[in-house]
Amino acid sequence: MPGNSIPNEAAYQIMHDELMLDGNSRLNLASFLTTWMEPECDKLIMASINKNYVEKHAYPITTELQNRCVNMIANLFNAPLGETETAVGVGTVGSSEAIMLAGLAFKRKWQNKRKAEGKPFNKPNIVTGANVHEVCWEKFARYFEVELKKVKLSEGYYVMDPEKAVEMVDENTICVAAILGSTLNGEFEDVKLLNDLLVLKNKETGWDTPIHVDAASGGFIAPFLYPELEWDFRLPLVKSINVSGHKYGLVYEGIGWVVWRTKEDLPEELIFHVNYLGVDQPTFTLNFSKGSSQVIAQYYQLIRLGHEGYRNVMENCRENMIVLREGLKKTEKFNIISKDEGVPLVAFSLKDSSSHTEFEISHMLRRYGWIVPAYTMPPNAQHITVLRVVVREDFSRTLAERLVIDIEKVMRELDELPSRVVHKISLGEEKSEANGDKLRVTVKKSDMETPREIINDWKKLVPDRKKTNGIC
Ligand SMILES: Cc1ncc(COP(=O)(O)O)c(C=O)c1O
């Protein structure tokens, strides 16, 4: 921190100039998060930027708006309405906080039941697919001491297989977590089949293993694009759902939601009744203070767009996704990994990656301003690398067409460059790893019919073997 102050205009200019070097958020196609909102909403956000959400006594209208958002979202997810059934929910910072809260509720419910039965309650687990959002679910597992039992993927099948998941359920399973809109390729998991198989298993075993749906992206897509798809509270074992308001809820960063089917699904002991400034304030969030703007912005979008507006936005995203997907197919260079039904994104991989990798394409697209991530799939599909473009509300048809043109340019440029794929030959074992720049392939002896050719190719590219760090 400098010893002396500087004029506000100078501070602004210094920071403004340095921040110009950040990527352009609108061209950040890696992100599911909202990068554009209407100017009227921007005004509401600025007007409420100084309100601490937790001070409910001071800002009762904001509290009321968050409750209305919970009601609308619970309704959207078909929460049962009855005299005894009332969904409950809360606004969070994003899906990660929502998942922590949902996971805690399952853990506490399971522990209470096991204690009452006089059974051990120290080894809780969650069954989920290996495609689960790594940071968020792994964080929950590590912070709250719950084992994650992951169903492995396989080539061509990149979501959790419901049959395998149900096989992995045991008496210590606090819930099965299904994903509506896999982060890797946008695909929806078959929650209905999972529910039906789990109903049977519960009947057989006497357990009552529930389901949580991580609908971070899909929660604001499925109700509008696929209203007939049963994935939500229409299925009896679905007890809680999280969704990111800041993804297809169409609000800037900092808002998520978690909704429980009934108030019995949220153990009362997890709700804090804080006597803050003389008023009883029930809270069930991980943080205390936070901004109000995002809750207000979510309410704006729900009433401004309504069902009609959300449906139009989602349909538009899907149409632009199709323009991009068809453009990529026409190049004949890529396999499309994403599915028709799901989050409007295109995940694709090179048909032939013997000379260049998806990481190089990602890297070279940066020169045109595009931020497109490349990553490897989780076990057992880690040998597959994909590029992913998320189609958001502000990604127009013009941009989709422009991106295809730029990808074609990059492919032509790459074709003119020497191969950057490095072959590491180590006979007798099979292993492959991608580190962003180089793909190292360890070849099994039986797979190598012409090892000498590979070595010669490599020598042509790198005449001085000392420079190869012994990779060859
Ligand atoms: C399926 C899924 N779950 C959870 C998350 C984490 O969500 P958030 O960034 O809102 O915390 C993501 C983020 O992309 C996601 O795709």
Automatic annotation (TrEMBL):
Signal peptide span: none
Obligatory cofactor(s): pyridoxal 5'-phosphate
One Gene Ontology molecular-function label: calmodulin binding
Superkingdom: Eukaryota
Reactions catalysed: L-glutamate + H(+) = 4-aminobutanoate + CO2
EC number from the UniProt entry: 4.1.1.15
Keywords (A to Z) from UniProt: Calmodulin-binding, Decarboxylase, Lyase, Pyridoxal phosphate
GO CC, alphabetical: cytosol
Residues with N6-(pyridoxal phosphate)lysine modification: 247
Any GO BP annotation: L-glutamate catabolic process
Family statement: Belongs to the group II decarboxylase family.
Protein name: Glutamate decarboxylase
